[in-house]
Amino acid sequence: MEARVVHALQKRQVLLLCVFLGVSWAGAEPLRYFVAEETERGTFLANLAIDLGLGAGELSARGSRIVSDETTGFLLLNPLTGDLLLNEKLDREELCGPTEPCVLPFQLLLEKPFQIFRAELWVRDINDHSPVFLDREITLNILESTTPGATFLLESAQDSDVGINNLRNYTVSSNVYFHINVHDDGEGNVYSELVLDKVLDREEVPELRLTLTALDGGSPPRSGTTLIHILVLDINDNIPEFVESLYKVQVPENSPVGSLIVTVSARDLDTGSNGEIVYAFFYATERTLKTFRINSTSGNLHLKAELNYEAIQTYTLTIQAKDGGGLSGKCTVVVHVTDINDNPPELLMSSLTSPIAENSPETVVAVFRIRDRDSGNNAKMVCSIQDHLPFVLKPSVENFYTLVTERPLDRESQAEYNITITVTDLGTPRLKTQHNLTVTVSDVNDNAPTFSQTTYTLRVRENNSPALHIGSVSATDRDSGANAQVTYSLLPPHDPQLPLGSLVSINADNGQLFALRSLDFEALQAFEFRVGAADRGSPALSSQALVRVLVADANDNAPFVLYPLQNGSAPCTELVPRAAEAGYLVAKVVAVDGDSGQNAWLSYQLLKATEPGLFGVWAHNGEVRTARPLSERDAVKHRLLVLVRDHGEPPLSASVTLHVLLVDGFSQPYLPLPDAAAAEARADPLTVYLVVALASVSSLFLFSVLVFVAVRLCRRRRAASGGGCSVPEGPFPGHLVDVSGAGTLSHSYQYEVCLRGGSGTGEFKFLKPIIPNLQFQSIGREVEEYPSGQNDLGF
Question: Which InterPro entries match (predicted)?
Fold first, then answer.
């Protein structure tokens, strides 16, 4: 226990030493730097580290900052190099007005340990303003009886610059009647008088127009002009005279608008219109005209706008009394604005440290400055915080205060402190300002992020657009601050063959998952991967979750017709004997669809026929059959257009054309087109027909026998050598599938069927026909079965 007390006393002594050093430095003469107004932003002013004798990098290590009373930061400090730079262009007239010199005080604040250095930036004036007359024309009424040597006070020009750049001289255009006298009132103000050199004669010269030029002392000098309009009047030998040439009055700054300030009074010994007096401001500034108004008849001066001691303390007004003859007299009214306690104290926060690590030793939480824009006792202040808090306020110099911890903080007992700093002035009535601070105690990273689910199942429809949002994962962390900020990422997949980086991506901030490219159900039905969630603590903690993506099928494959072939070669012609009855199988349209489910369910429809009602198509298996018995009146050649449509949404379709020839006998395998037969019949109808028919039947029979024998021998040889199409065990037996129908066709349609090796599914291939008929080619496209196990062929 004694060791703790000694240790605390040693720390308090070190802190008091730092504060003492800061006070001693702050009490020294301030550093002084100079800069011309309108200097470009970024201009180098000085190196504070060198001027203060600090080592390289010491400003950065000690947490240096520039503070000032200005609302905008006109200075910029580079803590690494110690360079003091100009942060913005300065307008001396806007910052200081007519005040000279223009001094902007600022402080260099070092936090570790706490130390303050005072400095001043002197803004030098440049000649960037020309003299300006408020009125473009000055009118003077001068009696013709005025003797030479008489003077007439002229309006003074205004120049916002100061010093040598301020107004310095006046000139008047060349003439024989007047010249200019320039006077200095001893306070830096220059005014001019027009002096009469020659007696005026109204009958000779009723009026004069002269140009008055005001020059400043800049290099090069700037100038401004106004016009003097002189009207020569008849004799009025008495000018108005004020009772007092100077009026002084004190007005509280909280005086209401419209209140009477003072009443000025003048008298004129003349009579009639020459004795009637009118009061007015004599070339008042714009600020004066906005603040005061005068009654032209009574001379009462009233307040027109609210006064503000903190902005202007003194107003000097020149009031003119003019009679009806044009003669005038002038007096001066000086209005002193007195201060009242109308400005509450202000608290300017320089730095605030929050959160504070628990169990930390005595720590500076905040550094701030207080000020009051009033004067006298109204500007004196006291500062305090609530009792029973583990914090203490320590005053410094220049109205700076530091808020430090009184003892180590314990987060488990209290994680947050609400501190109210109260600043009260000593004026009447007392005004106060309260500033609330929230100081939190930081935590350590002891909780890993937790996913809302251990496994996420997402479903996405194939042919999606790239960058599609397919779902989200979410994890929370019970810690606070950076320890609770969760970052999501994709973890390497267990399957090295899965191109996860090209399939999905995750938003690291919110866990949203996006498909990077379009997915194809026919290529990839499902895949899974793991996502990680890590916090930003030190060390970082993390957790994982499994995401399973299921790809849904879309109707993106149109039906494909396997038979009859539509490859641009000679059309496939089906032969039908005229003796065929109703329901005779003419042909079977064979089609497949690469999709699955109802997207692959196919239906068939006869769209167009040469003779409607003669043929029909079964909707479920594509069989083309006769709808009625054939007759001799039916045409020989028929063309059928069959539509194959799936059941997707929207449905896709394909069409195929069948050519049908009606023959007289079952043994007649081929008949020439009607046009060719007619031509031959015209040549020698009976003889040519018999010869051609006999030759065709004989040749076809011989060719069919040879092909049949060759195919049988080839199959036996391939079966013996293990080549060709193997017949694995499965749902399809290794025999021929007969599509011959009722047996009335001239040739049977038989196909060799085998399973696709290693598929493990009900998919099968049509490899080739056993007995090739006319214009029938081998078919090698895969056919996918319906979900019910029945294939698209309807077998």
Answer: Cadherin-like_dom, Cadherin-like_sf, Cadherin_C, Cadherin_CS, Cadherin_N, Protocadherin/Cadherin-CA
| Residues 369, 374, 378, 380, Cα dihedral to 10° | 20
Confirm if 301 and 294 have CB atoms less than 8 A apart.
Answer: yes
Are the C-beta atoms of 399 and 371 separated by less than 8 Å?
A: yes
Q: Which of 258, 256, 144 is nearest to 200 (CA)?
A: 144
Least confident of 92-96, 218-222, 665-669, 788-792: 788-792
Length of the chain: 795
* Contact (Cβ atoms closer than 8 angstroms) between residue 535 and residue 486: yes
Q: How many CB atoms lie within 10 A of CB 64?
A: 23
Compute the Cα dihedral for 232, 237, 240, 243 and give only its sign.
positive
Return d(Cα 439, Cα 442) in angstroms, integer: 10
Instruction: Decide: helix, strand or coil at residue 213.
Output: strand
Whether 297 and 279 have beta carbons less than 8 Å apart is answered as yes
| 757-766 average pLDDT score | 38
Give the tens place of pLDDT for each residue, 152-209.
988 888 888 787 888 889 999 999 999 999 988 777 778 889 999 998 887 788 899 9
Tell me: cis bond preceding 98? Omega within 30 of 0 counts: no
> What is the sign of the dihedral through the CA atoms of 455, 459, 464 and 467?
negative
Whether residue 345 is preceded by a cis peptide bond, meaning omega within 30 degrees of 0, is: no
**Residue 657: enclosing H or E segment and its boundaries?**
strand 653-663
**CA-CA distance, 323 to 271, in Å (whole number)?**
10
Cα–Cα dist 732/25, whole Å:
102
CB atoms within 10 A of CB 646: 24
Yes or no: say if 265 and 299 are a contact pair by the CB < 8 Å rule.
yes
Tens digit of each residue's pLDDT (9 = 90 or more) over 312-347? 889 999 999 998 888 889 999 999 998 888 889 999
